[in-house]
Write a structure and sequence with these properties.
About 35% of the residues lie in helices and about 20% in strands. It has helices spanning about 5-15, 45-55, 75-90, 100, 110-115, 140-155, 180-185, 200-210, 215-220, 225-235, and strands at about 25-30, 35-45, 60-65, 90-95, 120-125, 130-135, 140, 160, 165, 170-175, 190-195, 210-215, 240. Strands 5-6-10-11-12-8 form a 6-stranded mixed beta sheet. It is α/β, with parallel strands linked by helices. It contains 10 helices and 13 strands. Strand 2, helix 2 and strand 3 form a beta-alpha-beta unit.
Amino acid sequence: MQLIELRNHLDTLLDTQRLKDYCPNGLQVEGRPEVSRVLCGVTASQALLDRAVAGGHDAVFVHHGLFWKGEDGRVTGFRRQRLRALLANDISLFAYHLPLDVHPELGNNAQLGKRMGWQGEGRFADQDLGWIGRPAEPGQSADAIARALAQTLGRAPLLVGDGRRAVRRVAWCTGGAQGYFEQAILAGADLYVSGEISEQTVHLARESGVPYIAAGHHATERYGAQAIAAYLTDELGLEAEFVDLDNPV
């Protein structure tokens, strides 16, 4: 498949023009013009790029790319090493941040909800990034949902607030979306689930009566890139695979 053809297809599929983001979405590093093998992962870390080089991949697809607003733009240190791995081996890098979070089928929120059996019925927060709906068993406790998350994600989440609260409406937004907690409460959530937690999140959970679960940034955002790997294989006929590199955060 032609690289430009793949770029156009992914940009359209993930609707990159719809969202305001703080990084460039799409093709971040241009490699060889033909693509047949794609390695998918969460972050464009050196470890993932080394896997791509060793595996003879033509392109890498990630959620967290190399370039972010406000960062030092000089190509030194680890930035030089990552770019060198791509450029020296003619490997392309695709990165889709918020567009991968919000996609209704392949996105991180959609995929987490699918694995947990949550039925998304509405959206909330900035650019409709957050999802809200029914848990797998309406009325089960926040403690029970935390245990289900632990089993699904393979890591123990952190629950703050009233773990005994019955949950009929669950809100979630993967990654570092603790800043949307108050909006989730205003949307009518009995529980909010995200990846990370901040100091002030604890107080809001205790004072509002709405428990909060921090289930891990990496852990909650593995599934979008994994879904893309399956899509590239099944729909476009590419040889695509997902690699989950351990990250405890």
